[in-house]
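Our preliminary data section would be incomplete without showing what the modeling component actually yields. Below, a chain of 188 amino acids is followed by its predicted structure, encoded as tokens that our downstream tools consume directly.
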Amino acid sequence: MNPQITNLVVILVMMQVSKKIPFDDPMVLNGVRTLYVVSNLIIVGIYVYIQSAINKKKDMTTLKYVEPAPMGSTEEGKLVTTTVHAYDQQQLRGMYKSQLMGIGMMAVMHIYFQYTNPLLIQSIIPLKGAFEGNLAKLYLFGQPAVGDLKRPWKASGGFPGMGGAEMKSDKKSIEAAEQSGRGGVKEE
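Predicted structure:
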């Protein structure tokens, strides 16, 4: 099933469940806070394991792709030459940043605005996302890097069907970018 649809189902179900939870009771509130913290610790544990697996494998296969130009820009995408190891490290850094942003936003919502219901939902959705990510599929579950898991991965958008511009890794696009002199410096 599509992860975005399952996220929507989880959110709708958890919103209904959270209406029945007595957040006024300090024991219940502390239990939900503990659930949120444990959820984030599990996510960090998954990311640390993935990072050690990336470093252990250290796949130095060269990866070339054309990074799409920023939305609204008239310039063409730039050629990126990197390794699978560096690409995976970059993707993992993005996952860490995303998780920290979520924690920061949740902290503001809970501490400053006193919202408690999102704690329950945010204990489940990010954990589900950590298990459904491409790096988890490759390094945690051992799936081969073929099909949708073939690097470079499509940038996921915020809304269904609104994925970001696609990174091109076909030979024609790479040769065109090399000839036009857009990028091509190997990232270390």
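The CA atoms of residues 153 and 167 lie 7 Å apart. The longest strand covers residues 62-67. Preliminary results of this kind motivate Aim 1 of the renewal.
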